[in-house]
Amino acid sequence: MPDSQRSPEGDSSALPRVLHTPRSHALLSESWAQAEEAKRMERAGDDLQLPHEAYAAGAPCRACGRALLGEPTLGTDEESLARIDADNAEFRAEHTACNMGVWRIENNRAEHCHLCCPFPPLSPTQRDELRQLLYPSSLRIDRSATWRVELTCQHVETLTGHSPRYVEPTVQCTECSVIRGVVKAVRIDDQAKDGDDSSDIEGLQSDYQRLTDEQWSWIKHIVHTQDGPRRGRPRTDIRTIVDAALYKTRTGIPWRELPAEFGSWQTAVRRHNQLIASSQWDEITRTLAERDLPQ
């Protein structure tokens, strides 16, 4: 989820309850994750990366079969060195099309291709040291939160044992059996503590219905429409603008993600701001609230 939706570090009173991601961003994260998963499945059973245990035991490179540790590349006599240099020259000639150069391990003269041969794996100690250098607080992450997330497919999943501040951008949908992007997340354990989890959780799946003629009749007197001829493009109907603003409020989406049926989102923003500035929007929402209508 975007960083802009996260709470300031260390401010426990500002922990997020609801996180939103633009649908376009969620779909992009989804496509990337699906592509990575497809590549991983394609390589399954044919992983060229050695486990550290195999590497430490002296196993050769899985890509080229050349030694990574130990003999015969530790020889120092002229005959051994000449043989190793000739072998390296032949290896380079076979990989000229890679255009990535070669690498080798200290105390081992055998060369490996940057493109074809994966680097030796880090040891567990090295991984911990690197993790602490890059993410000093990674070992102290609080993973006690429970989130309910709405996916791009409109299915809802419950995630437990997650960070209280953010949700990963993609989740495996159990109904679709594929990875999907997250468009909305509600932290339900935090909501439950306050006893106020109904409104946001219900809002995970948009159930907004456009105003009926009867409902519009209750509020149409509040807004003022322009009469007479007008130059330029036809003006977007004010009822559509009100519908768009109510939809945006109900779903929590960014204005840019407003469905096309409501017309230009820029126009909707501009005219909604005009309604707010004139206090008409307050009167509209108050009238609807008094009649117990969802907003």
UniProtKB/TrEMBL annotation:
Coiled-coil regions listed: none
Domain Insertion element IS402-like residues, every copy: 211-284
Pfam families according to UniProt: DUF4096
Residue ranges of the region described as Disordered: 1-20
Segments passing through the bilayer: none
Name of the featured protein: Insertion element IS402-like domain-containing protein
Organism: Microbacterium suwonense
